[in-house]
Amino acid sequence: MRETVRACGMASPGERILVAVSGGADSTALLLCLKRLAREMRLTLAAAHLNHRLRGAEGDADAEFVRRLCADHGIPCVTEALDVRRQAEAEGGNLENVARRLRYDFLRRAAAQAGARKVAVGHNRDDQAETVLFRLLRGAGVQGLAAIPPMHGIAPDCVVIRPLLDCRRASILEYLGDVGAAWREDSSNADLGYARNRIRRELLPYLEGRFNPRVADTLAREAALAREAWDFIETHAEAAWDALSRDTGEGGAGGAHEDGEVSLPVAGLATLHPALRRQVLRRALRERLGDLEGVEAAHVASLDALCLRTSGDGETDLPGGFKGVRRFDRLSIRGGDREPPPPPAFSRELPVPGSCLVPEISAEFRCTVIRTPADMEAEARESDRRALLDCEALPASLTIRSRKPGDRYGGAGHRKVKKLLAGRKVPCGRRGALPMLAAGDAVVWIPGFAPARGYAARADAAKCLLVEVVADGAG
Q1: What is the pTM of this model?
Q2: pLDDT tens figures, 269-286
Q3: Domains of the chain with bracketed CATH
């Protein structure tokens, strides 16, 4: 694990790292190994555990195990319980996808509370091999075969790291036995009704026994090669997207319009290598739809066919009621039944302390000075509808407003708000309804996101500013 951390640049001396601990063998070993590595690298650790409330008493026992484990090792631990099944039913979404989103939302909040910019999770080399097989059997492309990356961002200032990604599961279990550590076993891992469990318990052992005893290592190397290829494609496709988005054509508008429509020049698309063109088309779909859920290779192929037509107009159906439309020299993604039309632009002054109404989005914002660390810690545990900000970094008056072109999260020199929203897969049609808390020209907080760097309350602050959304009609 030490070699992986150093080779990938996962941690630097003096950093604070949040460790996601489920109580299983992988995350338990991760916590114990990182504690040992922390002494060498002068790292500070905190832990986080989310109870999904999917396994009743078993899940409650997992949470208690993690609390005791962290207490025994003197590591502070943030815990939370969410009814993931109820949330998935309310949203009408896939249980696994909703659980994953809520888990990473929790980790972002826990990392902000702990003052950590790195979140360590316990994926190992067997997980990597299983993921490659799972995606290969479903028919994944280069991106899917890249499988689990060693590091990836989940917020502007927060990166997930996977220190155990080069370790086999057998060596992890051997290590836990050597140090005499207990762990929790998730009973759902034995359910062969799940395809991933069948791959883990049946297919991978069969391949190891009959074809290649080091098949997990081979699959991990293939994932690394796919990841390199995908990084190349994605980098050049993003540059192509930026160039094509600026191409407004004859009196038209390129890229994403404020009404959410995406429009690109056909001539520019047709000159791209097919691999780059298809990725630019996926980028356009994600920009308009908010994510690629439900988007299949056939949808991308139909858009590609519209680009390559030598003459005439055409349309193709896309998920969610959207359409790909070819009109003369432009390809657009239009329509959809997912979002209402965006509200008009708005701007309201938010006194410090005080409150303001934003009728355009049926929301009220309140601003309160919190004077004690105990108060600050209590409020920090709340949801992403609240933000704790550094009083000293803020002016006497703030503004709640809609997004403006060129906005940056934290002010000049920081990440563009447009890219921030695209990275979190917020559909274009919803972005105009998102309220921005601004200090002068700098956007310092958007509900649902952590405060911008330099504006979040410090853990040792004597007082801080609590800003909360009391009602919100923006969705």
Answers
A1: 0.69
A2: 999 999 999 999 999 998
A3: 2-226 (3.40.50.620), 247-335 (3.30.465.60), 347-471 (no CATH)
